[in-house]
Amino acid sequence: MKVGNVIAGQADSAIPRLRSRLRRSACALIIGAGSVALVAFGPASLAYAQTNTAQTTASQPAGLAGGLVTRQTDPDAKMLVTADELVYDNTRNEVIAEGNVQIYYDGAVLEARKVVYDRNANRLRAEGGVRLKDKDGTVIAADNLDLSQDFSNGFVNSLRIDSPDDMHFVAARADRENGDTTVLTSGAYTPCEPCKENPQKPPMWQVKAAKIIHKEKEQMIYFEDARLEFLGVPFAWVPYLEAPDPTVKRKSGFLIPQFVNTTEIGFGATIPYFWNIAPNMDVTFSPLIVSKQGVMLDAEFRHRLETGSYSIRAAGIDQLDKDAFLGTGLDGLPQAEPGYRDQRGVIETHGRFNINKNWYWGWDGWLMSDETFLQDYNLINATTREVTSQLYLVGQGDRSYFDARAMYFTGLTSYDIQGQQPIVHPVLDYSKTLGDSVFGGQLSYDINFTSLTRDEIDLRATSAAYAPTFPSLYDGPTNQCDLDKVGTNPIEQRQDCLMRGMVGSYTRLSGVVDWRRTFIDTAGQTWTPFFNMQLDVASVQAQTEDSPWLPGGDNQLIRAMPAVGLEYRYPFIAVQSWGTQTIEPIAQVIIRPDETDIGQFPNEDAQSLIFDDTNLFEISKYSGYDRVEGGGRANVGIQYSANFNDGGQINALFGQSYQIFGTNSYANYDMANTGAESGLEDDASDYVARLYYQPTDRFSLINRFRFDNDDWSVERYEVEGRATVNKHLTVSALYGLYTAQPLLGYYEEREGILGTGTLKLNENWNLRAAARYNLNLDEIDYTLFGISYIDECFGIALSYRSDYTESGNRERVDTVLVTFTLKTLGEAGFSTQVGSSSSDDD
To answer: How confident is the model at residue 42 (pLDDT cuts 50, 70, 90)?
Structure first.
């Protein structure tokens, strides 16, 4: 019988004991309800629940865990109970809230048709449309709920959980056992939002299991009879699966596998295992099992310290079928590739540590059995052509920069000859701009120290006639110079071969000081006088006898190059109704002595010389310190710019450089023929021009030209256009034309087109494509096509790439890559070689 009856809105007049018991019951319900549900589902952690009573507190895990596990409650929090009816049944010793029950406590809200607290059995029951919303937004829904007071035992029927971070769980029944075990029967998980038009429609993907068991003390989740479904169709099944719960940020266990298929190694899979040694230390074992070559062992150790972190990786294999790496040479006979060996492997290490907010140091290290191992076994990006082992120290100030590093280069193509790679020990750069003015102008200085050695001479032929004919493509690059064909005449050797790298040791210390000050007169003319001084001290130990490229033996060199000059600009500005336009004549005169010791200094860092609009007004157009521009020179040009009111702009530049007195450095070649066929070797240089047009922020077009100074023929031309056609389509195209430069090792004209595009079909689907057309060979030598789909819970990408490579026994490699991404589960990929063509097939 009813002993007490309290109408809604009059709860404050109920017996005091009722309020305290309900407060305790609600707290237990809020905490207990969550303990019977899955909490999170992630790549390395799936669920979490607490075993302690309502008085126990715990930190709130991320994601779905907040609100479903035991959480910190405020002991001073007030509880509000509303119901159509509150009953205190003395006979059954029960407290009953019935009819639109709502219990508010510490940010959580419990709703049910009826809530009963049985004091004799110390059990709490909620019935009819049970809904619990925790303070973080997590929502638990169930038909009914029955828990002991300490929620060590109990059950929930027809459970559903929706978290604010889009994690959704359902189960026909949830049982609480032994105080630390939660069992979901016929449970399912998905991060995919239900279809708004048809909530009954299966999600994009979900994981279903006959039983999902959460062992709280073990901090583990166990799945029995689990299957992965896509759009309601079973896709994969496993009889048993286990994973750590979300309270564990790092836990030992297996990771998502990756799959591979190539001609040389066959089909295989990598099954990584993560070993959590400590919170700041771990090891990942990634053995690769392949059908042709057996098992490759691969392990990476990572360690994070207070000021930085480092890693060490080792991989190796005893190949079962090294004959798979036998190619066919130009003579039609089998030829061994770099991978033709029994044992192959690599040791790799990286590290970086902060010294303070301005300084850090670190290293990268690579030691490998052969140059193609990394790419043959998919341990590095297929487009990587070299790796650098280095030890470095870097500092950055407000007006200064310091960089020192020792480097060892390793080529990754079969054409690379390791002995021709320099060993740098070290190279140091320091630059600083003074904050205070000096004589009213700005003073800056740069220091460079370079020391290197090389074991083998690096020669390139200036004509295909002097390139060696290799029986195999794997013996060296085809533009190496064959001295047996050239002969012993030094003059002929110098004409027919250039030297890209010396044999021996080279040490140089260089310093550059630059001062400049700008004046603007009353007519608006800009005058900038400047002073520049470069000083070089070098020691050269060539390990060969005197050669046509560089003197042999030990040589000590010193070179000074002072320069004074004046730059003049006179902008004419016109304001129109449509915008503003400016015409600006520019003239620069530099006075200095001739460059000395040309051909005595090795040229290691100044071989890249491209004369165009970007360096027309540079004091020295060389890219490094080993060469320095000498003699008197005048650089002149005119620049036009227009800025439209609607945001568009045009910029154009046309100019030329003149050797006005002294020796033209660009006409006096060094060991690498730097300056030859550059457009600067004559007293009057080639013409350079730039035309940039951007009518809107969605389209731009830039043209760069170099015209012969005699007949205006095009020596170099680049045009690049980029367009965002609409919010869906973005395209770009680059056309390049470069005339032959045999003195630099380019025997033929190079011409090609590269096009790229991306198309956003809708908010989920994207297409991308790229292609490079070699006009000289009349063929497409690079293609890329890709399609991808991504939504809030699922992603898939399919790409096809056809590329010409100098690695291994193929010129062209066709690769298909498929990548699946399941939110919270991780990413799995599969790459396969679908075709290849050897060089002898062409």
So the answer is: very low
